[in-house]
Amino acid sequence: MSTAGRRHRYVGPAELLDLVRPGSEGRVVRSAADLDAWLSGRDKDELAEPFTHVVGLDGLLRLAPRRSEHVACAGGADVLGAGEMGFGRAAGLRVVREVSNQSTGYCPHLDSWPAVARALDRVGIDRPAGFTHAVVFRRCTTCREINIVREDEFVCVFCGSELPVQWNVAA
To answer: Would you kindly state where each structural domain of the chain is located, as residue ranges?
Structure first.
């Protein structure tokens, strides 16, 4: 792993990767003004739910509407982080109210938080100290399916085998 963070490759369905086209990337957010301009163009219903986010290998935050695929938001590229992010206002400024690593296309490790935090700090907006909703992903070594671990039960929901304790999705 580099000092920039763990690189996550796309591990989701191939047919979604095949749909990625040049220019389909999410909106790059470099500053609070960029974020405000992009969010100002969203309707009230969109603002009420979290958005799709990725952090590219360049360390920049990219956003897309919630029902967008993470792989499209990333333009098909590897990422340092991916998940969902919700915004609000505090003292008239945009703030991150919720942020997760919930992306079944990239299944990012929990250690992707520092890359997400650095991207948000670069933008210059207030954020939580960590993921507000952290998702634990594991690949079953028996059937090879990707699982979301719930309530610390490391058991494959597809075949019943024990799941590894260590993150292994990219394996």
So the answer is: 14-134, 136-171
At 15, phi and psi to the nearest 5? -65, -30
Separation between Cα atoms, residue 106 and residue 126, nearest integer Å: 25
User: 106 and 75 in contact (C-beta within 8 Å)?
Assistant: no
Rounded distance between C-alpha atoms, residue 16 and residue 34, angstroms: 28
CB 83 within 8 A of CB 100: yes
Going by C-beta distance under 8 Å and a sequence separation of 6 or more, which residues neighbour residue 94? 32, 35, 36, 39, 87, 88, 125
Structure tokens at 167: 């993150």
Average pLDDT over residues 141-158: 97
- Report whether 52 contacts 70 (CB < 8 A): yes
pLDDT value at 82 more than 50: yes
Reported as a single tens digit per residue, the pLDDT across 152-164 is 999 999 999 999 9
Res. 52 pLDDT band, cuts 50 70 90: very high
Q: What is the 3-state secondary structure (H, E, C) of 131-144?
A: CCECCEEEECCCCC
